[in-house]
């Protein structure tokens, strides 16, 4: 089976004012695979993720150099509308951040602002189904999303992103605010989702990378130390620093 | 040892009593105002029926035959207040959105102090501005306009209210967590969509409260209307007409020589009571909305 690269990061540099956060990253994200970006806090993994859908634009003072190719096109080229990129490449954040609206309106938000013409309720149902939340919320779609538990809120945020049928879903430590059971649910969901879309997950949790990812990138102090198939990297790491990290010697 | 501890205790007690006295001054004064307001008002209603006061359509306490229907004063007040809100609500809200969502840091640092200066200008200056600057412009456009008119006073009062609406609304918008903005951006929302589909709905209670508080401030505003809106109590909704507000009537009588204890004198208290009840209820509603609909993010 050949691997098709859907996002290619080429010589990516990011600095906040004088501080260099990413120093020349090259990385390929393969279609319909789960790629984990792991590393200790402050290694630049969230910054790298935010570069893939131009959410980095919102960080004040961030300067981006190099390219990120999405389907062969540089998303940092001036003729690209960042809103269109984010419409195609969804994102889920560390802390669940549903809108203070009903469950239904949360999922319908993306389709509505992007002028969805089809059957909205069907789309909402389908998205909640795919996020594994439908059975828990189908009788209270019009309740405020804040009534849900933390884990449910995070799955709602995933459903909200799925409602736009994105090709890529970026997950920024999606389980860091969740308890172990909710984490298990979300990880299970991520594995199911890879049939339809490509997933990039940032995590500082080594076990999580090992559990869910097909490919893993190990980032340290703004540099990509190692990238490869998860099973290989966790058994025969090529770099001494990778080995030290996954055996828990630091980080 | 015991003795000094006792002294410390006494001093502590003394300070507490002093502080409590200081705190009670404003409460006692408020009670005093309310009592004098309502007792004089009661005296007024011994001579004028409640029915005439609230349903009469003529207000001529200084001429004979004297009529005591408050409707013209209320209409005048409402006319000016509504004009002021038509000016202040959109401009105040727009500047709040700009400051909270669009303005770069440098611009925000420049504009916020300017708005605060606007809020600190004495109202008499606004009154002069209305009379000597805005009114001539209005009269150039609509020659039939009276020298004293509701429109000029209303527009200038609206300008005065902008900083109040803007700063309270901006506080409400800045309190909306960034994670909600990021969520919307990540779904392909533009800045405008983030502002009016996420930030404004989340901050709506603070925005509405700022409107209500501004409205209440406009009803109680005195100087601008005294100078620019006229002193003709008239039941009209024509903004180009000269009118009289409740506050301007009070000034007029107090500056004139209504004898103490006379019916004209007491009518001031009746009008002031209405003013007091209206602004108090608006303020209560405003603070209640802020508390009741506070978003818990």
- According to CATH, what is the topology of the largest domain in chain B? MetI-like fold
Number of distinct beta strands of chain B: 0
Mean pLDDT of chain A: 93
Query: What is the strand tally of chain A?
Result: 10
Tell me the structural class of chain A. Answer: alpha/beta
Enumerate how many helices of chain A there are, as a single number: 10
By CATH reckoning, the class of the largest domain in chain B would read Mainly Alpha
Q: Level of helix content of chain A?
A: 25-40%
Domain ABC transporter (chain A): 7-246
InterPro entries (chain A): AAA+_ATPase, ABC_transporter-like_ATP-bd, ABC_transporter-like_CS, P-loop_NTPase, PstB-like
Protein name (chain A): Phosphate ABC transporter ATP-binding protein, PhoT family (TC 3.A.1.7.1)
GO molecular function, one term (chain A): ATP hydrolysis activity
Write up what this structure looks like:
- The complex is a heterodimer of chains A (251) and B (297).
- With 251 residues, chain A is α/β, with parallel strands linked by helices.
- Chain A has 10 helices and 10 strands.
- Chain A has a single domain (5-246), classed as P-loop containing nucleotide triphosphate hydrolases (Rossmann fold).
- In chain A, 35% of the residues lie in helices and 27% in strands.
- In chain A, the strands form 2 sheets. Chain A has a 6-stranded mixed sheet, sandwiched between helices. In chain A, strands 2-1-4-5 form a 4-stranded antiparallel sheet, with helices on one face.
- In chain A, a hairpin with a 2-residue loop joins strand 4 and strand 5.
- In chain A, helix 4 (120-130) packs across helix 6 (150-162) and helix 6 (150-162) runs parallel beside helix 7 (180-193).
- Chain B has 297 residues and is mainly α.
- The mean pLDDT of chain B is 91.
- Chain B has helices at 2-47, 50-55, 71-102, 105-120, 123-141, 150-174, 178-186, 191-202, 204-220, 223-228, 246-255, 263-292.
- Chain A binds chain B through residues 53, 55, 58, 83-84, 86-87, 90-91, 93, 95, 97-101, 109-110, 113-114, 146, 157, 160-161, 164, and chain B through 177, 179-190, 193, 197-198, 201-202, 295-297.
């Amino acid at each position: 089976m050949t691997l098709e690269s859907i996002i290619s990061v080429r010589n990516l540099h990011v600095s906040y004012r004088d501080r260099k956060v990413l120093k020349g990253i090259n990385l390929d994200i393969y279609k319909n695979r789960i790629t984990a970006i792991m590393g200790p806090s402050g290694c630049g993994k969230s910054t790298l993720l935010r570069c893939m859908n131009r959410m980095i634009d919102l960080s004040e003072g961030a300067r981006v150099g190099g390219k990120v190719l999405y389907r062969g096109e540089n998303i940092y080229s001036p003729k690209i509308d960042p809103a269109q990129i984010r419409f195609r490449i969804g994102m889920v954040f560390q802390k669940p951040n549903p809108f203070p609206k009903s469950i239904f309106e949360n999922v319908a938000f993306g389709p509505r602002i992007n002028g969805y013409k089809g059957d909205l309720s069907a789309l909402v149902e389908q998205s909640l189904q795919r996020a594994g939340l439908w059975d828990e919320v189908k009788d209270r779609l019009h309740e405020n999303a804040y009534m849900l538990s933390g884990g449910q809120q995070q799955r709602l945020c995933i459903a909200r992103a799925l409602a736009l049928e994105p090709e890529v879903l970026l997950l920024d430590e999606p389980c860091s605010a969740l308890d172990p059971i909710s984490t298990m649910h979300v990880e299970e969901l991520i594995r199911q989702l890879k049939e339809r879309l490509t997933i990039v997950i940032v995590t500082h949790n080594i076990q999580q990378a090992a559990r869910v990812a097909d490919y893993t990138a190990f980032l340290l102090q703004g540099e990509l130390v190692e990238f490869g198939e998860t099973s290989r990297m966790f058994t025969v790491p090529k770099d001494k620093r990778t080995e030290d990290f996954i055996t828990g010697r630091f980080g | 040892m015991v003795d000094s501890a006792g002294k410390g205790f006494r001093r502590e007690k003394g300070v507490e009593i002093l502080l409590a006295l200081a705190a009670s001054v404003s409460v006692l004064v408020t009670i005093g105002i309310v009592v004098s307001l309502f007792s004089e008002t009661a005296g007024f209603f011994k001579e004028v029926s409640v029915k005439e006061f609230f349903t009469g359509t003529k207000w001529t306490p200084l001429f004979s035959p004297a009529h005591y229907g408050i409707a013209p004063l209320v209409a005048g007040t409402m006319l000016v207040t509504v004009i002021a809100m038509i000016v202040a609500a959109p401009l105040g809200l727009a500047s709040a959105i700009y400051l909270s969502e669009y303005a770069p840091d440098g611009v925000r640092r420049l504009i916020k102090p300017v708005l605060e200066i606007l809020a600190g200008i004495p109202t008499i200056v606004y009154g002069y501005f209305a009379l000597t600057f805005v009114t001539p412009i209005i009269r150039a456009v609509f020659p039939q306009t009276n020298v004293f008119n509701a429109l000029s006073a209303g527009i200038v009062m609206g300008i005065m209210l902008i900083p109040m609406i803007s700063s309270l609304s901006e506080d409400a918008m800045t309190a909306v967590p960034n994670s909600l903005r990021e969520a919307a951006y990540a779904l392909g929302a533009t800045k405008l969509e983030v502002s009016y589909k996420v930030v404004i709905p989340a901050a709506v209670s603070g925005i509405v409260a700022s409107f209500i508080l501004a409205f209440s401030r406009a009803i109680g505003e005195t100087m601008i209307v005294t100078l620019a809106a006229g002193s003709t109590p008239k039941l009209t909704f024509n903004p180009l007409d000269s009118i009289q507000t409740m506050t301007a009537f009070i000034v007029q009588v107090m500056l004139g020589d209504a004898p103490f204890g006379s019916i004209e004198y007491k009518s001031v208290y009746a009008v002031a009571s209405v003013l007091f009840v209206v602004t108090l209820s608006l303020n209560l509603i405003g603070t209640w909305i802020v508390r009741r609909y506070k978003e818990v993010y």
